[in-house]
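re: that chain from earlier
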Amino acid sequence: MRRLGVLAVLLAFLCPSLYPGQVEASKAGVGKRLNIQIKVTTHSVTLSWKGIADHYEVISLREKGKKMWSGRKTSHTQKGLESNERQGYKVIAYDQQKKKVTEAKVNTSTLKTEAQKQEALQSMKERYKKNGTTRFSPFVPND
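^ sequence. v structure.
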């Protein structure tokens, strides 16, 4: 029976996808998952995560490790961004002794404006026309 328990722990560590939300490897060792949720608009990115630690830091990967925010809240919003702009973040969770519990990296981008969407659509139509394609029917989701 004890061997079965040890095997289950090893499987959970080696195959975390079999046990979602239970084990995540990080540079600090084995910790809990932050389960980061991302909400984007044309000019902002909001990150929110599961409260698993005492405090958190959000680091910008785009701005070479600049600390964007630090605190106890489980969300952060960066505003004033350009539309259609790539962003990267690292969220680090710390315990009460300021020891790293886990971290997660996130890559995303802000949304395109309606004008940028129309410009991209027009460009695609022109490329299809130039290449001699007679049918053009792109899938454009409703916002």
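Residues 12 and 19 are 6 Å apart (CA to CA).
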